[in-house]
């Protein structure tokens, strides 16, 4: 008598041939399940481009697995009998196939993993080896430490993974971090390279039609979808960046420019997060480019730090601290998210540009997310769950494990400072230095208390004043409070009054 098949689940962000689950199962005996389910497409109003990417990449991956000899049961969103949830589909298919064990990989998101762990199926869990630092290894690193700074974690990751090291084991070039070289504004005549663009095939066109019809209530533009949906195309996007973007990535990592959504950024996060790229390979390619003198060290180190430092670190924090982490609100913020986050209709040019680009492409680079839309939410005291849900909804690369620590922790300082010893707050001056937005703005960046004063300016000082008790003892904030205290009392009062007026306008539902 033949043995009962085992059922292996592949989620939409687990599209990798290297999963342990695939090694544990046998194509001759076992069945893989891939299911498009309503629950996963709607728990926030995901950007339509994200839904297109995930569904199309799933369909392509199912095809590739079949070509490798696997039996794949693929449930489309509109298939009759689709239960609408991952657990529902696992139950349905286990019963239907009379399967024995159900093999699954650790989930990216706590929400889904909890549901799967709570169900009564005979689950066999596999570690997600696409990450270089396991949840357990991160917990071991964190244990007994007074503070969980990314920088310390990152040094350990460089050593353990033998990346950018001198023969004696020290850091390449003598320093672990070249961030001080990576803050240049973009010179007028410098432009980012055009990003690689990928034509939609028949599978993707079908998915685009489905999404166009079915997700009309989600924010964001469907037209012109040109993102890779296969491993081969994701690799081509990566090669394009290596050849044209990486060398200048370090220098202009923090710069923003109108009409240049990608500048010298890789645009790979959405592909990487679903398994179309492999982080080890990316790091090795970057190191090789530096050793062959194709790119400078500040670019290679800066890029590797994002991948094995920040990316692995935020995942570690997420799994260490969930589910309590999502409830944190260190600064006690309560203000609802302004409506203009969903349509970009604001006179603040920087905000209108970043939100507009986000709704158009489902993409903004790190500094746009951190220092424009994020900075505004911090200064305006937006309730963390509302701004977190916004970031989860509008980006193609958004998954709770990476979005939440970045938004709740790095942007909103709602965890009290795991991700930064001080909040990333800034006035309009920062945006003026790093972008070309202010010249086209209805507000004046050199004004603060006047009616036409840049809202970031008064809100910045208002933020410092209203949180003085919390931050004034922080040595990294001493300079800022020194500046505030050196102001004439009348100036401080005027800044407070203007800040109050701006916040009152937000509370009244007005657009700034
Ligand atoms: P590049 O600038 O070219 O960087 C290379 C890679 O490094 C990225 O692809 C990404 O994988 C990794 N990386 C860089 N910074 C971070 C970081 N802070 N955390 C984790 N990985 C990082 N990234 C996501 O993948 N998903 C999210 O949902 C997400 N939400 C964010 C929310 C906020 C408020 C902020 C400030 C950042 C968020 N990030 C998120 C991190 C970062 O903004 C994006 O990874 C990056 O902009 C993706 O574009 P890119 O591929 O061109 O990145
Ligand atoms: Fe943004 Fe202020 Fe500059 Fe306008 S003036 S673009 S609101 S920073």
Automatic annotation (TrEMBL):
Spell out the InterPro entries in the cross-references: Crypto/Photolyase_FAD-like_sf, PhrB-like, Rossmann-like_a/b/a_fold, UV-DNA_repair_photolyase
Query: What name appears for this protein in its UniProt entry?
Result: Cryptochrome/photolyase family protein
């Amino acid at each position: 008598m033949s043995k009962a098949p085992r059922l292996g689940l592949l989620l939409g962000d687990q599209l990798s041939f290297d999963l342990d689950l695939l090694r544990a199962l046998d194509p001759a005996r076992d069945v893989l399940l891939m299911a498009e389910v309503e629950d996963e497409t709607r728990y926030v109003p995901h950007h339509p481009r994200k839904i297109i990417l995930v569904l199309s990449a799933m369909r392509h991956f199912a095809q590739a697995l079949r070509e490798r000899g696997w039996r794949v049961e693929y449930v489309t969103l509109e298939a009759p009998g689709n239960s609408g949830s991952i657990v529902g589909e696992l139950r349905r298919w286990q019963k239907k196939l009379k399967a024995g064990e159900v093999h699954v990989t650790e989930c990216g998101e706590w929400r889904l993993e909890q549901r799967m762990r709570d169900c009564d199926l005979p689950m066999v869990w596999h570690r997600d080896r696409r990450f270089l630092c396991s949840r357990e290894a991160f917990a071991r690193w964190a244990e007994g430490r007074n503070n969980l700074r990314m920088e310390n974690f990152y040094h350990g990751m460089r050593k353990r993974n033998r990346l950018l090291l001198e023969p004696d084991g020290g850091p390449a070039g003598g320093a672990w971090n070249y961030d001080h070289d990576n803050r240049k504004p973009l010179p007028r005549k410098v432009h980012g390279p055009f990003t690689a663009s990928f034509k939609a095939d028949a599978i993707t066109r079908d998915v685009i039609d489905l999404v166009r019809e079915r997700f009309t209530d989600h924010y964001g533009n469907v037209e012109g979808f040109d993102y890779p949906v296969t491993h081969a195309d994701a690799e081509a996007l990566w090669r394009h960046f290596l050849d044209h973007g990486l060398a200048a990535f370090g220098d202009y990592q923090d710069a923003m420019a109108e009409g240049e959504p990608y500048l010298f950024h890789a645009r790979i996060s959405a592909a990487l997060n679903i398994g179309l790229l492999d982080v080890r390979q990316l790091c090795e390619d970057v190191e090789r480019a530096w050793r062959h003198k194709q790119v400078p060290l500040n670019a290679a180190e800066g890029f590797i730090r994002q991948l094995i430092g920040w990316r692995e670190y935020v995942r570690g924090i997420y799994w260490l601290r969930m589910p309590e982490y999502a409830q944190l609100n260190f600064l006690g913020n309560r203000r609802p998210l302004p409506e203009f986050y969903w349509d970009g209709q604001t006179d603040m040019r920087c905000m209108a540009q970043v939100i507009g680009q986000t709704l158009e492409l489902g993409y903004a680079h790190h500094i746009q997310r951190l220092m424009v839309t994020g900075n505004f939410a911090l200064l305006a005291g937006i309730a963390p769950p509302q701004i977190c849900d916004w970031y989860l909804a509008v980006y193609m690369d958004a998954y709770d494990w990476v979005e939440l620590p970045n938004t709740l922790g790095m942007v909103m300082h709602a965890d009290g400072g795991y991700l930064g010893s001080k909040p990333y707050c800034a006035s309009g001056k920062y945006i003026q230095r790093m972008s070309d937005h202010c010249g086209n703005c209805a507000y004046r960046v050199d004004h603060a208390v006047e009616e036409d004063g840049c809202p970031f300016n008064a809100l910045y000082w208002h933020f410092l004043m209203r949180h003085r008790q919390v931050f004034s003892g922080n040595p990294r904030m001493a300079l800022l409070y020194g500046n505030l205290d050196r102001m004439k009392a009348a100036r401080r009062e005027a800044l407070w009054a203007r800040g109050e007026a701006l916040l009152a306008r937000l509370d009244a539902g007005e657009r700034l």
